[in-house]
Design goal:
alpha+beta; four-stranded mixed β-sheet; three-stranded antiparallel β-sheet; 4 helices; globular
Length: 182
């Protein structure tokens, strides 16, 4: 049995001399009984939607004993080639072909975040919240790190695509494999 709880974001503390606005604080708790074996497509979609809700900043997601609810590696990758990027999540190493790509912590986290969520577009604020861990920086900071990541990884093949007026996503042509065991 798994429990997924989404609670509202904590509000910033109130300054001295001001009264706190009255806000209802509620928590939505879903209990999903999982049968042994693979998950049905409907259940996978439900878990993805709950994860998207939490990632958008509408709440916090806590999953107990639920491996499929987290991010997944890019499926169905072709055989490794010289331009394929391998992310070794256990050791935080990124390799392209037979060379190791030196990435900063933020560049690595940004690449891993996008690689685990293919075909999804993220705004700068969503990336700041999910990769940097806060939203109180200049949103153009994301642009700088994306530019540096493109320069280091996407020499022949684009890695990150700009969706004009919206944000960034992993490029469809990007050949990236995430290995969580190494």
């Amino acid at each position: 049995m798994s429990v997924v709880a989404i609670s509202p974001r904590p509000h910033p503390p109130v300054r001295a001399g001001r009264s706190a606005p009255a806000r209802a604080s509620s928590t939505l708790t879903l209990t999903v009984d999982l049968a042994p074996g693979p998950l049905t497509p409907g259940l996978v979609r439900l878990l993805d939607l709950i994860g998207e809700l939490a990632e958008s900043g509408e709440g916090r997601l806590r999953a107990d004993d639920l491996a499929p609810a987290g991010p997944r590696a890019v499926p169905d990758l072709p055989a490794a080639g010289p331009d394929e990027v391998h992310i070794l999540a256990g050791s935080r190493v990124v390799c392209q072909g037979d060379r190791e790509i030196p990435l900063t912590r933020i560049e690595y986290d940004l690449l891993l975040f996008l690689a685990e969520r293919p075909r999804r577009v993220f705004t700068r604020l969503q990336l700041l919240a999910n990769v940097w861990g806060y939203e109180h920086a200049v949103a153009r900071t994301v642009d700088v790190h994306v530019r540096r990541l493109r320069a280091k990884v996407g020499v022949d093949t684009p890695v990150v695509t700009t969706v004009y007026g919206v944000g960034y996503r992993l490029a469809d042509e990007a050949r990236i494999a995430v290995d969580r065991t190494r």
